[in-house]
Amino acid sequence: MDTFTLAATSFIISLSLLLTGKNDELQEAFAGLCAAVFVSQIGVFFQNIFAPGFWLNIEHAGILAIPPLALWFFRQLTRNKSFLSRRGVIFSTVISVLGLISLFTPISRWAYFHLTVIAYTCIAILFCYIDLLSHVKKLPPSTEKKRLSYLVFACLIAVVISSVDLFSYMGFNLPKITGLILSALLYLILLIIAYPQLNELHDFFARALIIFISTLTGTIIFYFVALFFSDSVPSFTSILMTSFLIVISLTPAKMILKNLFSFFYPDSKDVFTSLYEFDEKLEREKTLMLAEMAPVFAHEIRNPLGSIKGAAQYLKSEASTEEQQKLFDVIIEEVNRLNAVVSQFLDYARPYKLKLKSQNINIIVQKAISVIAANRLAENITIVRELGEDIPEVEIDEHQIIQVILNIALNAIESMPQGGRLTFRTSKIETITGEAVSITIRDTGSGISQKEIKNIFKPFFTTKERGAGLGLAICQRIIKEHGGNIAVKSIPSKGSVFFVRLNKAV
Fold first, then answer.
1. What is the residue range of 421's domain?
2. Which of helix, strand or coil describes residue 448?
């Protein structure tokens, strides 16, 4: 089962990389290496079932293919900046080809032929590891160095753990785990090369945790089903490995079926979209449609608004009575309000490229407070600052975050028409993904009812008579684009508290 797990894992990884259709030499090199591992392990697996002679040659063919493919892969992984030269890859290829030819000669029956092939492959892999270690040491502090360092340690740990199998050759009755460990290592390498956005150790652990939980869930289900319907239950290890293979094979299987269905049923594009993903898909489509529609919508409204405002201003200057002038003032004021609504709509709908910069959030909050303090609406408001010390810097777009703070603060001020207290607090917090910064904005206003609080971040929802209902929706979008989170708690007639969380700058 250990051998079969490694064979299946390497096959699935190779197939999934090839099905993505990316012209990426690094992924192609890794796909080839996994394919060679698959061939060698299939040879080992079928030797115990069929005539060993033929399948021993298949095993040797796979093992001989590993050295040149490993050298090629590690050259791509180090961006051809290592001591592994193209000549080394060619030299290894020639040796492997000569080894493949020798499979059809009496040399293959030599007693030490198998050990020689294994030793040759181990030496090539050792060279690759030394090359990777040397390359990582030369790299300046960077995301790439961090990711490759994870691989260096993972390879070392895999070798140490796999050495446990040596005890099984000494007569100890222990299950072999090398195949399982190498399967995990191959999957880690897949994450490193296929998902460059994962740059922290906890990102890899999160991916691995999802696979582990899915595998464990499948194992428990299979085990109890087998226990209920069958007298003989397979071993827990066998079920665990089977579940692991099913979990990691779902994606390539889905890709194959999707390609087949796309060929025979080109109109059935959503057949593989899960019911849980439909809402997200519809939301993305609505957002794209809104982004395309917003500029046209704004243009068609602003043009007549401009004409109305110009005509009202001209007629006001020609008005003969004070009552007529007041009516024209109302028209001009309402035109300005509608124009502001259109501007808010554009801010919400159109895509915005963040200009991120690592900054101290306390400085940003202080700037926002200075703007708020200068507003005449804040005359009866007591502003309290509770800014924490040793706050880690966050990677943010300054103007966007100030807009968020201003929107929340002005809403809070409007909820305190008779005056009150507006408190700004910052602090460092610990989350599952690491350190983060919390911004808390508390007011002592009228509060928000439980019925309304569920909808306050929805576009165009408002409790104000003259509000557009886009302010908090814009705030939520900005914070989400920063990878953060925004939430609110409120007690009617007591006040509200808005919580904004932003991740620490990397």
1. 357-503
2. coil
